[in-house]
Each structure stands twice: as C-alpha cells, then as structure tokens.
C-alpha cells in the first residue's frame, strides 16, 4: 500500500470523496507509520510520506468511512530529556471522533521496560490498544434546532451525570436507563421543566479511561474526569439501539433539551489525560510527542499541577489548537451551549507554571467566532503553586465560588460567620467579582456539587464515609462544614429529621435568593443520599444513581417555588451590581436591616453572634434570614406584607404588619402589598 502526499490540514483523519487524508502533529518524531486494520483486525503499516512544519501527513486513495487505524511513532527514547517514543505502542489519534476498544489495565501499555529501566518496552500493544475509526459524513437532521441563549443573569444551572440521572428512574424504559436517550426521555425533561432550571451542566461525556488502579479494584471512573479522546462521545452512555450511534444519540439529547428551552453545558477536561504519570499507560500523546503535549520538569518528569499525574501544555500552539478544535467540534457538530473547565487555572499556566489571564488559551477563546456566544465556566483552582484563582479569570467567564459554598454552610450549620461575610456572598461576592468587565453572574453560587456531599448528606453526616472507594477513607475533602443535626447517618428521631429539613431548605433558599448564578446538584431536590460518601467518583452504582423511588415531593415543590420566585425578582436577575445608595427615584437595590428594622451599623456587620438580618429589595421584596436556633421577631418595614415563601413552615395567608415571628433556621420571603419597602431608617452602611 502506498500513500499519496496529502495535505497538513485539517489535523486528524478527514474523509473526502476519493479517500482519506491523515495528518498528525509531532515536532520531535523521526518517523510516523499509519497503521490500518481490516475487518479481521489484520494490521498494515505504511509511513506517512511527508512532514511539513512538524505535521506528518498522507492521503489514502479509495479510503472509506469505517476504516480503523492508529499510529506508531519513532524517535528517541530518552525520558530524562522528555522523549518517550516507542513504535511498539499503537497510538490513538488525538483527533479521533470514533473510538473502538478500551484502555485496559495491562503491562503492554507501559512505555518503559520493567526489566531494563530507561529503555523502551519491547511489547507490542496493538492487540489491546484503543483504535480510531474514520467517521462517515455527519448528516444529522437538527430540524431547525435553535440555541436557547438564556441570558447569563437569568441562568439557573442543574449539574447532572448522564448515567446517574436515569439508572433508577421508573418512568424511563429499562433499555434506555443510564443513556443519552434516557436523559432525553419526556419524564426527565418534564421534571427539569417543573423545577424551572434553565441550563443542564453535564459531567464529562467525552471518551475517558478507567485508571489501572481502579480496574484492579473492580471499580471504574464513574465521573469521567480521565480523558482519552477529546472529540469522541463516551460510548458507555449509548443505548446501542439500531440506527443510532453514540454521537447521534447525544445530538438527540441536545436537540430535545433545546426544544424544551434548556441549555446544555459540557464539563471538559483539558488539564490532564488518561496517560497519568511516568508509570501510566502509553496510549496517545505520550508516544506521539511527549515533550510538546505535556509540561515537564528539567529532569523530564511530569509537572503534576493537576494531582492526576500529568499536566497538558496548553502554552504549546499545537496543544492549544487541539483544545480549540475540540471545543469548536462540540459547538458546531453537537450544538452545545457552553463549557465548564475542570481545574481551569491550567489554561493560564505558561512554560514556567505561573498563572496569567493573558495566556494563549484565554486570548484564543475570547476572539474565536464559533465560541463567541457560548458560556464559559471555570473551576478556578488546581493543585499547583498559585493554583487558587477564584475571582481572577477574564471578563466573560463565570467561576465556581467555593467561598460562597463554605460561607453559607458555616452560617447555617456552624458559626463564626458575621453579617458582613454573609452579605458579601449574597451580593454575588462583590469583593471578588466586582471589577471592570465583570457582572454578578460571574459568581456561580453552589452549596453542593458532584465533588463532595449531597445536600442530604451535608446535613446527615459530620464525617465522610468513603471506605467503598478503596482508599481507607483517605480520599475526599476533610473540611466540609457539614453537620449531622445530632445523629450520624439515617435517623428516625423526629427532632433530627425536622432540623435536617429546615437546614436543607434554608440552604437552598439562600442559594436561589442570592445574586450570582445558582447551581443545583441533581438529586438535591429529591433528598438523594450517597450514604456519607463525599467523593463518589468511582461508584457506578446505586450510591451515585439518583434514588427516584424515595424522592421527597415536598422538597421538589419547594425548589420549584424558589426558582419561580427568583425569576420573578428583577433585582436578582437584572445582571447589575446592587447599589446601596438611592436611585433618582429614591429607591435602593437592597437595604441591609437588622431584625428591628434599622439599617445595619458598623458594629452590626462584624457581629458573628448575631445570626439574623433582613434584606429589603427593590420592587417590594423582603427576605428575612433567621440563622439562630430560636424563633425571632422581625420588625417589618412600613406597609402590609404577605408571606410568599417560608422555608420552615407552610405558606401563610393574610397580610402582616408591624412584626413577624420567624421560625428557627429559616428564610422567609415577603412581598409588599402596597409598594416598595419603606424602612424608618434609610441610612446604609
């Protein structure tokens, strides 16, 4: 077999009318072989004939869709200098969009010879290696699909796992449970619409591998944060129905959610790969050009700023190109509406590891016309030096706000939080995000997320219970600010149950009634428990699958009412920073009042023992926060007020004037019956 010269772009395998063009970047290789496999798995190797600007390419005349292929790349094997070329290893195309096979735990994938350290392993990995398959033309019918384009200020995020959402859903047909098709089922969409969320944030749906150590324990990487192919849809969530593919079924899901007015955000991992540390498997980038794709120390070892063994070198033009091409693929081919970037400070790390918002990835994203309209969310920390970057991402980005999370947990479940700290978090953490070019929505407020306790467990366990993960309970966060309300784990004590319910509802109320972008963890509205496991990344079982059979209907209704109330409150969703000075018409965006109805003074802000205050919002909305363990009297501003929502008791009828007794650990929302709030003391701090 002879290859024609072909062309260097686009990278990957490109199907044309008369054949397939193959193009692979490798700056330090001395040769690249294209490996083609027939229907019987027989391999045929042929060199890519041209290297142009470090891109090796060739054209296979007569090549067709479905062709299975991989690469073998030759060069120096000098790990201390960063080079790990080993042509005995079959390598997956970084641009693969369809992958067959899995990355098994097997010594055949080791790059280093165990018997001769520092030398390339002579074992051929071809038989077990994942392989790319050339996809056919994408003729998917989007039926006029239109992106919902929900304004950032009106966004309410629902973080969910494709499999976990429906594996135990009684209304989803059994053959669709745990799949993209199951998530798109009308019963699931009806639930999302009932809640009133606007945007679904999916845990990774790109193809991933299970770490070898998990495979040895008969566990798997359930969350999927161990990427293998950045442009391939995870086939494990495919139903396998005739006439569908993993890609088409994921496209069906996006289309169905769009028809319901719901956005789709993908959780993406551009910080490390499944090749892990120097003892990890050689699957793709390591064998193609280790020194170009990964950050390396001076001795050739991997910089581990991710805690996962390696760190992708996004400062390299070709690695940056791979990231950008991947993002554009998901937007153009799958119509996704945005991305949440795992360990996002890696995007801003240059060759020396220092973080800067002027780094190439940020500039590339800011100017790209395909990506100009999508939502960008950062997990603003990694484990490298200077890795905590909350509030330090460029304009246009939103960020997971762990300071909001911890402050609200401490306020409702512990102590030590003063009114000033609470107010800062309720005001979209203006101390962190109120800088030129940024808006309140940049703060993604969360109480819980996939990484940590569920809301039910946050109020049922003092300690993590992660022994099922096989790490002797060493994994997972230790500082959770959780509180079991008097009894560890499940309880039949009515007082404990009441306290847990009140605490959960109060946490949810302050989540939805704060400035910023609220994010709800899937299952919190059901009161789903993981049995105290706060790091269920490897629990592909009922621990993580949502327990629909025991869903708390009252909690679902409460969350839906909260979101509806948020949408009806202009000052929460207008995208403008709250001002504590009056507008020309004499109104305030917000006034911070003590329970007696007076504006807070300097000493009031700093008092962590005072666990109550009122927020008088523009448009006649009053929020009463009672974080104490006792019923408190609040002196209401002048006028008549009706209770719109109360976290601790049923909605009351009638009007209230003068004073209102708020239940312990509660949030009460009142609406003015005669216009905006008019406190007797309008001075603000």
UniProtKB/TrEMBL annotation:
Residues 106-145 are annotated as: Disordered. Keywords: Glycosidase, Hydrolase. PANTHER family: GLYCOGEN DEBRANCHING ENZYME (PTHR43002). Belongs to the glycosyl hydrolase 13 family. SMART domains: Aamy. Residues 136-145 have a biased composition (Basic and acidic residues). Residues 159-566 form the Glycosyl hydrolase family 13 catalytic domain. InterPro entries: GH, GH13_cat_dom, GlgX_C, GlgX_Isoamylase_N_E_set, Glyco_hydro_13_N, Glyco_hydro_b, Glycogen_debranch_GlgX, Ig-like_fold. Pfam families: CBM_48, GlgX_C. It comes from Silvimonas amylolytica. This is Glycogen debranching enzyme.
């Amino acid at each position: 077999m002879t290859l024609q010269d072909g062309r260097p772009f686009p990278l990957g395998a490109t199907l044309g009318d008369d054949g397939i063009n193959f193009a692979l970047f490798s700056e330090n290789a001395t040769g690249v072989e294209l490996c083609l496999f027939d229907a019987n798995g027989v391999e045929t190797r042929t060199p890519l004939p041209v290297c142009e600007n470090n891109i090796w390419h060739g054209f296979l005349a007569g090549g067709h869709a479905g062709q299975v292929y991989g690469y073998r790349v030759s060069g120096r094997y000098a790990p201390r200098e960063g080079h790990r070329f080993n042509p005995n290893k079959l390598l997956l195309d970084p641009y693969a969009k369809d992958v067959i096979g899995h990355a098994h735990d097997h010594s055949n994938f080791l790059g280093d010879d165990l018997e001769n350290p520092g030398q390339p392993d002579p074992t051929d990995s071809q038989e077990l290696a994942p392989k790319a398959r050339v996809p056919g033309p994408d003729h998917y019918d989007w039926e006029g699909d239109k992106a919902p384009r929900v304004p950032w200020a009106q966004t309410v995020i629902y973080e969910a796992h494709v499999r976990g959402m429906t594996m135990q859903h009684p209304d989803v047909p059994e053959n669709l449970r745990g799949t993209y098709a199951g998530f798109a089922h009308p019963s699931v969409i009806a639930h999302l619409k009932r809640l009133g969320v606007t945007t679904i944030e999916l845990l990774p749906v790109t193809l991933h591998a299970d770490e070898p150590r998990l495979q040895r324990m008969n566990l798997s990487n359930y969350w999927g944060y161990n990427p293998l192919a950045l442009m391939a849809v995870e086939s494990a969530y495919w139903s396998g129905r005739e006439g569908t593919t993993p890609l088409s079924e994921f496209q069906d899901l996006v289309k169905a959610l769009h028809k319901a007015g719901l956005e789709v955000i993908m959780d993406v991992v551009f910080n490390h790969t499944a090749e892990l540390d120097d003892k990890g498997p050689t699957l793709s980038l390591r064998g193609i050009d280790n020194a170009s794709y990964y950050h390396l120390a001076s001795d050739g070892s991997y910089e581990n700023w991710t805690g996962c063994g390696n760190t992708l070198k996004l400062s390299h033009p070709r690695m940056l190109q791979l990231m950008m091409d991947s993002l554009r693929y998901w937007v153009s081919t799958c119509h996704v509406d945005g991305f949440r970037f795992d360990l996002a400070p890696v995007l801003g790390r240059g060759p020396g590891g220092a973080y800067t918002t002027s780094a190439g990835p940020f500039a590339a994203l800011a100017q790209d016309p395909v990506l100009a309209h999508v939502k960008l969310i950062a997990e603003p920390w990694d484990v490298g030096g200077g890795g905590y970057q909350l509030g330090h991402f460029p304009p246009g980005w939103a960020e997971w706000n762990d300071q909001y999370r911890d402050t609200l947990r401490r306020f409702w479940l512990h102590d030590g939080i003063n009114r000033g700290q609470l107010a800062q978090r309720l005001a979209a953490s203006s101390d962190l995000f109120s800088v030129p070019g940024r808006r309140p929505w940049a703060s993604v407020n969360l109480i819980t997320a996939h990484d940590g306790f569920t809301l039910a467990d946050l109020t049922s366990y003092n300690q993590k219970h992660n022994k099922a993960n096989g790490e002797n309970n060493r994994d997972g966060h230790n500082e959770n600010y959780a509180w079991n309300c008097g009894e560890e784990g499940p309880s039949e004590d009515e007082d404990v149950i009441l306290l847990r319910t009140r605490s959960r509802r109060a946490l949810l109320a302050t989540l939805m009634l704060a400035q910023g972008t609220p994010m709800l963890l899937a299952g919190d509205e059901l009161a789903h428990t993981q049995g105290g496991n706060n790091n269920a990344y490897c629990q592909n079982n009922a621990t993580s699958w949502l327990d629909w059979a025991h869903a708390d209907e009252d909690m679902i209704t409460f969350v839906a009412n909260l979101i509806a109330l948020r949408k009806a409150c202009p000052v929460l969703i207008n995208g403008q920073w709250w001002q504590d000075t009056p507008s020309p018409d004499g109104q305030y965006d917000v006034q911070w009042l003590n329970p007696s109805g007076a504006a807070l003074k300097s000493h009031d802000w700093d008092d962590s023992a005072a666990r109550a205050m009122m927020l008088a919002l523009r448009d006649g909305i009053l929020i009463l926060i009672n974080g104490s363990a006792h019923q408190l009297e609040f002196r209401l501003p002048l006028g008549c007020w009706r209770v719109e929502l109360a976290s601790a008791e049923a909605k009351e009828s009638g009007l209230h004037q003068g004073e209102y007794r708020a239940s312990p650990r509660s949030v009460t929302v009142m609406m003015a019956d005669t216009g905006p709030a008019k406190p007797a003391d309008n001075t603000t701090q």
